[in-house]
Design a protein that fits this description.
Length: 219
């Protein structure tokens, strides 16, 4: 939303670099190191005394600049608030409104005075007002970045699945070597049901990606 609304500090390169960094860091074992070799510090603590600064630990990520290159600062709330202003216009989620049982009469009945507009109505108004050519131009500019984000998520999912398989195989071999009793039937059924749901979701997402490939040929 910050990029779409033209926030001056948000560029496409910054968003792509930040997404890639986040996807690569869930299992980080070492603290981030700036490319210039200096000691990193939290973005909002630049004026703090060194002894009062937050320790830099594994899992933290470096702030990307407008060109996507890492800086010597660590992402924190101060960076988020400056880069993605918290007072940015917010569009309410229509699904949340429906879950809450919201409608105009109910709002008035309970004394709710907020000017809440369901997302479906906002989108309808935006669709009427949007210039189709400008919308197409924006989408063509943004879609490559979305592909990169999805590709990174799939890469991480594949690595997680491979690691899960390796851990289960190790557990199987250890059970046989130690002559331990197998898991109970209920436990095995529960785990398999959860994996079946995950595999079904993965298969559905693959089908969606195949449709995207077909649409790309028509774009």
């Amino acid at each position: 939303m910050a990029f779409t609304l033209g926030a001056p500090t948000v560029t496409r390169d910054l968003l792509i670099a930040f997404a890639k960094t986040i996807l690569a860091h869930p299992d980080a074992y070492s603290a981030p190191q700036p490319p210039d070799g200096t000691t990193p510090l939290c973005y909002g603590e630049q004026s703090w005394n060194p002894e009062n600064r937050t320790p830099i630990v594994p899992g933290m990520v470096l702030v990307p600049d407008s060109e996507g290159s890492p800086t010597a600062f660590v992402v924190d709330k101060a960076w988020f608030d400056e880069t993605f202003p918290p007072d940015m216009p917010h569009v309410s989620n229509a699904a949340e409104d429906e879950e809450d049982g919201y409608d105009e009469e109910d709002s008035q009945h309970h004394g709710r005075t907020e000017n809440i507009i369901p997302e479906s109505r906002m989108r309808a108004a935006e669709t009427v007002a949007a210039d189709p050519r400008a919308q197409l131009t924006d989408l063509r500019r943004e879609l490559p970045a979305r592909i990169e984000v999805v590709a990174g998520m799939y890469e991480h999912a594949v690595q997680s699945a491979d690691a899960l398989l390796a851990d289960f195989e190790t557990a199987r071999q250890l059970r046989i070597r130690l002559e331990e009793q197998p898991l109970s039937a209920d436990q095995r059924i529960e785990w398999m049901e959860r994996l079946t749901k995950a595999r079904s979701a993965a298969e559905a997402s693959v089908a969606a990606l195949q449709q995207v490939e077909g649409v790309i040929l028509q774009l």
